[in-house]
């Protein structure tokens, strides 16, 4: 049996303000830091100690991984970072309040942009892609392929090569593997593992900082479809909050 743990980063500054974030590099709030440490304690209590870690190149995921590993008592294990685990590029919606986008474009478009498989939000301005191309974190991503928006299908297409080339070999070698990433890169990964259909995808919401355990057979098929959250009740409540984003107001950061 192989064990994979999926973890969305803790609350970021723009999560607390209810803003679309995507590839914008927003740090954790103090609450997000506490959530990350709590995730580490949950891992330790469950005896789930990762051997390998993969994160995106975004600060909120990198810092969540660091804080989680410290609290789990595994601060020095190998961590690999790659842009392929980044959040979906949310195009021109990045930085905008979710409530305002819902009001401006209506429920149907808002839901399609957030939760359908194939709809991409309107693209960001071309100069945003030029800025990303200069960032050394995206070395290996050709300038002309720098995204200005992404659907979940686009996220899946850029994520799966990393899954197969970098994550699967560790799992096959029996290493307990932690992937710290984002709402939509993890939705793409869960959809792949659980073979979710495009019709099942809209109902999938990944809460912040809730470790999700997948035990996989030798073909990397989950023994339990959907995996198991280490704290199922808290995860269900937090996932319902994610689903309701757009109709909630921002949260004070403490
Ligand atoms: O980038 C963002 O805005 C969030 O991290 C994920 O947003 P979503 O859950 O609305 O897709």
Automatic annotation (TrEMBL):
<feature type="binding site">
    <location>
        <position position="98"/>
    </location>
    <ligand>
        <name>substrate</name>
    </ligand>
</feature>
<feature type="binding site">
    <location>
        <position position="60"/>
    </location>
    <ligand>
        <name>substrate</name>
    </ligand>
</feature>
<dbReference type="InterPro" id="IPR005952">
    <property type="entry name" value="Phosphogly_mut1"/>
</dbReference>
<feature type="active site" description="Tele-phosphohistidine intermediate">
    <location>
        <position position="9"/>
    </location>
</feature>
<dbReference type="InterPro" id="IPR013078">
    <property type="entry name" value="His_Pase_superF_clade-1"/>
</dbReference>
<feature type="binding site">
    <location>
        <begin position="87"/>
        <end position="90"/>
    </location>
    <ligand>
        <name>substrate</name>
    </ligand>
</feature>
<dbReference type="InterPro" id="IPR001345">
    <property type="entry name" value="PG/BPGM_mutase_AS"/>
</dbReference>
<keyword id="KW-0413">Isomerase</keyword>
<dbReference type="InterPro" id="IPR029033">
    <property type="entry name" value="His_PPase_superfam"/>
</dbReference>
<protein>
    <recommendedName>
        <fullName>2,3-bisphosphoglycerate-dependent phosphoglycerate mutase</fullName>
        <ecNumber>5.4.2.11</ecNumber>
    </recommendedName>
</protein>
<comment type="function">
    <text>Catalyzes the interconversion of 2-phosphoglycerate and 3-phosphoglycerate.</text>
</comment>
<feature type="binding site">
    <location>
        <begin position="21"/>
        <end position="22"/>
    </location>
    <ligand>
        <name>substrate</name>
    </ligand>
</feature>
<feature type="binding site">
    <location>
        <begin position="8"/>
        <end position="15"/>
    </location>
    <ligand>
        <name>substrate</name>
    </ligand>
</feature>
<dbReference type="GO" id="GO:0006096">
    <property type="term" value="P:glycolytic process"/>
</dbReference>
<dbReference type="GO" id="GO:0006094">
    <property type="term" value="P:gluconeogenesis"/>
</dbReference>
<keyword id="KW-0312">Gluconeogenesis</keyword>
<comment type="pathway">
    <text>Carbohydrate degradation; glycolysis; pyruvate from D-glyceraldehyde 3-phosphate: step 3/5.</text>
</comment>
<feature type="site" description="Transition state stabilizer">
    <location>
        <position position="182"/>
    </location>
</feature>
<dbReference type="Pfam" id="PF00300">
    <property type="entry name" value="His_Phos_1"/>
</dbReference>
<feature type="binding site">
    <location>
        <begin position="114"/>
        <end position="115"/>
    </location>
    <ligand>
        <name>substrate</name>
    </ligand>
</feature>
<comment type="similarity">
    <text>Belongs to the phosphoglycerate mutase family. BPG-dependent PGAM subfamily.</text>
</comment>
<keyword id="KW-0324">Glycolysis</keyword>
<dbReference type="GO" id="GO:0004619">
    <property type="term" value="F:phosphoglycerate mutase activity"/>
</dbReference>
<feature type="active site" description="Proton donor/acceptor">
    <location>
        <position position="87"/>
    </location>
</feature>
């Amino acid at each position: 049996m192989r064990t994979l743990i999926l973890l969305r980063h803790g609350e970021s500054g723009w999560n607390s303000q209810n803003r679309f974030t995507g590839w914008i590099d927003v740090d954790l709030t103090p609450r997000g830091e506490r959530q990350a440490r709590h995730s580490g304690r949950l891992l330790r209590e469950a005896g789930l100690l990762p051997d390998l870690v993969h994160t995106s190149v975004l600060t909120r995921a990198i810092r969540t991984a660091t804080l989680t590993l410290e609290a789990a008592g595994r601060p020095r294990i190998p961590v690999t970072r790659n842009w392929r685990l980044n959040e979906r590029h949310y195009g021109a919606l990045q930085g905008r309040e979710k409530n305002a986008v819902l009001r401006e474009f209506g429920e149907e478009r808002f839901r399609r942009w957030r939760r359908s498989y194939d709809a991409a939000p309107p693209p960001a301005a071309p100069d945003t892609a030029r800025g990303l191309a200069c960032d050394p974190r995206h070395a290996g991503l050709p300038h002309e392929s720098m995204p200005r928006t992404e659907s979940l299908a686009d996220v899946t297409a850029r994520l799966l090569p990393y899954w197969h080339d970098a994550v699967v070999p560790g799992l096959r070698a029996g290493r307990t593997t932690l992937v710290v990433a984002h709402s939509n890169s993890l939705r793409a990964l869960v959809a792949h593992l659980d073979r979710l259909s495009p019709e099942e995808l809209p109902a999938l919401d990944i809460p912040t900082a809730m470790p999700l355990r997948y035990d996989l057979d030798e073909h990397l098929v989950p023994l339990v479809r959907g995996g198991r959250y280490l704290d199922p009740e808290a995860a269900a409540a937090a996932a319902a909050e994610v689903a309701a984003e757009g109709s909630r107001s921002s949260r004070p950061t403490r």
